[in-house]
Amino acid sequence: QAKEAGRNTLRFFDPVIQQRVREQSELEADLRRGLRDGQFSLRYQAQFDREGRAVGAEALVRWRHPFKGMVPPADFIPLAESSGLILPLGRWVMRAACRELKAWQLHDATRGLTMAVNVSARQFRHSDFVAEVEAVLHETGAPPSLLKLEITESLLLEDADEVIARMRCLRQLGVSFAIDDFGTGYSSLAYLKRLPLSQLKIDRSFVRDVLTDSNDAAIARTVIGLGRSLGLQVVGEGVETAEQHAFLLSHGCDAFQGFLLGKPVPDLRDALLARTLPAGTTASVLS
Ligand code: C2E
Ligand code: MG
Ligand code: MG
Ligand code: MG
């Protein structure tokens, strides 16, 4: 195959690429082992509404590598995608998140919160995806109406009709959708209107400089306005300062996620209980 030959040619002749290919294939083997040996876990980052009430959380995968320690998703998700390991990893994430979502229903602090799960394009396009989500919901007993899938605009670049059909199937199960990192991709407004979406998430890169960069401020306001006119909730992500929060709030943003309000944590219930308790009290006093 021409593609295979092309890759081998690069591998053979360019030492820099050769080195990089070696590192990548080691990391790929590590990923495979990591999946087998249970080195992955989830963190949950809460999302809050305009009144400051927790309304949901996003599940974020973490990998504890035996020698390298915590490897951030940015360093392994792309490789998981290109190698196809995102399929078993994505299945693991979906199952773990749905199990947790089910457990949340047992406690006042977490009952009714939505669980957002990141789904990569390759995972979503896999022919078994809908059936797998359905099976996981069934097996875990998680309420489908509280499961939200975060997809990105890149998903819509190819076979939009197929993607939309698949989204509708999931929507019928009760699952909802958010577009992640909105504004960084190439969404066509015509598609946006056809998608069964409930949320747009303003990318963190626009929130970061919203007070100092008038272009970013304009983008943030535009996304909020667009969301409003399409009847979608808009979530601001990467909110780190009270000023960013105030800006988004004053322009009509519906929900907020970021270090200012809460970091990703292993136990959301503990984090939410600690948040509402008076200073000096610990959550364990109440449980
Ligand atoms: P994302 O889905 O846009 O997730 C938000 C990222 O922003 C997370 O990074 C989160 O920790 C970080 N973040 C949240 N609040 C703040 C803040 O106030 N300031 C800053 N500087 N960062 C903040 P994380 O966990 O490193 O994940 C990075 C990306 O990796 C995610 O971006 C998502 O695209 C991907 N990812 C994470 N978990 C999964 C997963 O289970 N499956 C897939 N396919 N992708 C995942
Ligand atoms: Mg996300
Ligand atoms: Mg995002
Ligand atoms: Mg992102």
TrEMBL record:
The keyword Transmembrane is assigned to this record: yes
Domain EAL: 24-278
MF terms (GO), sorted A to Z: cyclic-guanylate-specific phosphodiesterase activity
Keywords: Membrane, Transmembrane, Transmembrane helix
GO biological process: cellular response to nitric oxide
Coiled-coil stretches: none
Name of the protein this chain belongs to: GGDEF-domain containing protein
Superkingdom: Bacteria
